Amino acid sequence: MRSLICAICLFVLPTAAVRATAQDSAQTKEQAAWTVLSTGLVDSSTDVRVRAVLVLGELNGNAKAKDAAISAMKNDQKAEVRAAAAQSLGEMGAKDAIADLHATIKDTDPSVIIAAAHSLIALGDNTGYNVYYAVLTGEQKTGQSLTEQQKKMLKDPKKMAALGVQVGVGFIPFGGLAMGGYKMLTRDDTSPVLAAAALMLAKDPDPKSGTALADASANEDKWLVRAAAFDAIAKRGDPTLLAAAEAGLQDDKDQVKISAAAAVIRLHDIQSQPKPEPKKSAPKKAKK
Questions:
Q1: What confidence tens digit (pLDDT) does each residue in 40-77 have?
Q2: Which residues have C-beta within 8 Å of that of residue 138, sequence separation ≥ 6?
């Protein structure tokens, strides 16, 4: 019996030692990975810091990654890094960073503001739609005009061109309009951003955004904005916007006319669906 016990010990002890060594090795590699990532977060190159901050969005549920993204969003001197950090917080589902994203809406750079708004929406906070409404309409939902600083930012050609580029890399979903947006950047710096704002408002439950989309669908100067507005109206599925969609069938731009046609068909389909009958209440029992 003693021989058998000794034999078992000789087998178990090395196995446990190997397992412990493997665990130590895994921990060492994870520490090495964090060293690489942490070094990237403070690199002198803006591009390197942006990359390091963006990959934090892949680390869902990792408190250390969330804290690193919040720190970069608050403290980095470069707007590109702050915007990337705001984007990452939305991608990692960091709902406890909502208050920090709200504070970032007051940033001095529009790309950071829009990235924060996008993440707020991704995290289920509809106040993020307010930013896109302001971009599309030039005023706040309260009816107040934007501040002079906000107007200046949104009218800055260089800032708007930068936002137009970011449309294609993730800060603002652009759908099938991306290629048209890029082609217009050299001629019109604002259309891609305004179009992207219209698309974002498709899912905003506030009726004011529906009105804003109807107004944008009649934009005389920017066909890309009109096309995006009709795409958003179709996605929104609100039959009260049918008249605006039908007006688009007369547009002189084929891309806009096609988008309007899809919106008309979609809204007619919704309108023709039978409405559910109200539930009948159970008859009350007669009192004895």
A1: 999 999 999 999 999 999 999 899 999 999 999 999 99
A2: 145, 146, 151, 154
Q: Is the separation of the CB atoms in 150 and 108 below 8 Å?
A: no
Sign of CA dihedral 108, 109, 112, 113: positive
| Residue pointed to by tokens 């449309």 | 167
> Up-side HSE of residue 141: CA atoms within 13 Å toward CB?
17
The whole-model pTM stands at 0.77
CB 141 within 8 A of CB 208: yes
The DSSP secondary-structure symbol of 221 reads: S
pLDDT in tens, 241-272: 999 999 999 999 998 999 999 999 999 999 88
Most distant CA pair in the chain: distance in Å? 96
Residue 150 DSSP code: H
Residue 80's Cα: distance from chain center in Å?
16
139 φ/ψ angles, rounded to the nearest 5 degrees: -145, 165
CB atoms within 10 A of CB 10: 9
Cα 232 to Cα 147: distance, rounded to the nearest angstrom: 27
pLDDT tens for residues 186-220? 455 677 778 888 988 999 999 999 999 999 999 98
Tokens matching residue 253: 């731009």
Burial environment of residue 278 by CB neighbours within 10 A (0 to 12, 13 to 18, 19 or more): exposed
**CA 116/CA 99 separation, integer angstroms:** 11
